[in-house]
């Protein structure tokens, strides 16, 4: 500091808002890191055959669940990057009366494993055979997402609205979008764990 000057103090409301934002950022980052740790602990010892084993023809394998999460997050990436570049809310994002509803609906629905969803785009449907290093791919991907979340600290998560890359009429607040991402990851990690508990899962694989 020069000339003995001290920085101007922040108002209570502003300080509280920034503290709350810091807490939200840390929560999302911790959830992303925990998901990576959970995946590494649960699946890193699996062989390619085990990773790609499916309980049924119309069910996903462990590897497919992880591949789907990477693909889904990557579809969201350009939407987020546009907001980071300063792109304002579009006309529909400004006037849509359902942004809050869609966010709450998706978060609530993803927690309910009994509620089934069909992948909204073929772009995020995983291939039938996934590379054996999918666990490490997922963990590296999570680190990149964590870095992007750090950058999002400059945005207002409640006023910034984004449009779903899968359904153009669906909008939700940025904060809800991040919560949806977390719940989506948790949902499919739970699904992947259930694969290991399914009768017929190959416990031992010959080298």
Instruction: Report the CATH topology name.
Output: Four Helix Bundle (Hemerythrin (Met), subunit A)
How would you characterize the largest beta sheet? 2 strands, antiparallel
Q: Please report the total strand number as a whole number.
A: 2
**Strands ordered across the widest β-sheet:** 1-2
Short description:
With 207 residues, this protein is an all-alpha fold. The chain is built from 7 helices and 2 strands; from the N terminus they run ααααααββα. The chain has helices at 12-43, 48-51, 62-84, 91-95, 99-111, 134-151, 174-196, and strands at 161-163, 171-173.
Write up this protein:
It is a single chain. Helices cover 57% and strands 3% of the residues. It has 207 residues and is mainly alpha-helical. It has a single domain (17-110, 131-196), classed as Four Helix Bundle (Hemerythrin (Met), subunit A), CATH 1.20.120.450. The chain has a two-stranded antiparallel ribbon with strand order 1-2. Helix 3 packs parallel to helix 6 (134-151).
Features:
3% strand, 2 strands, mainly alpha, two-stranded antiparallel ribbon, 57% helix, Four Helix Bundle (Hemerythrin (Met), subunit A), 207 residues
List the helices and strands and how they pair.
Blueprint: H1 12-43, H2 48-51, H3 62-84, H4 91-95, H5 99-111, H6 134-151, E1 161-163, E2 171-173, H7 174-196
């Amino acid at each position: 500091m020069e000339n003995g000057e001290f920085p101007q103090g922040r108002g209570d409301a502003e300080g509280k808002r920034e503290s709350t934002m810091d807490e939200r950022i840390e929560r999302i980052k911790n959830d992303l890191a925990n998901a990576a740790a959970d995946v590494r602990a649960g699946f890193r010892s699996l062989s390619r055959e085990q990773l790609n084993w499916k309980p049924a023809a119309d069910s996903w394998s462990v590897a497919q669940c992880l591949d789907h999460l990477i693909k889904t997050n990557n579809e969201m990436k350009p939407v987020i990057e546009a907001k980071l570049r300063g792109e304002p809310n579009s006309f529909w994002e400004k006037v849509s009366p359902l942004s809050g509803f869609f966010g709450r609906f998706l978060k609530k629905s993803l927690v309910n494993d009994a509620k089934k969803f069909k992948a909204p785009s073929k772009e995020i449907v995983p291939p039938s055979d996934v590379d054996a290093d999918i666990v490490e791919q997922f963990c590296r991907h999570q680190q990149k997402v964590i870095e992007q979340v750090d950058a999002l600290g400059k945005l207002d998560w409640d006023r910034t609205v984004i449009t779903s890359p899968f359904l153009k009429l669906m909008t939700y607040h940025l904060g809800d979008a991040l919560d949806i991402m977390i719940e989506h990851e948790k949902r499919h990690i739970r699904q992947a764990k259930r694969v290991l508990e399914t009768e017929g899962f190959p416990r031992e694989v010959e080298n």
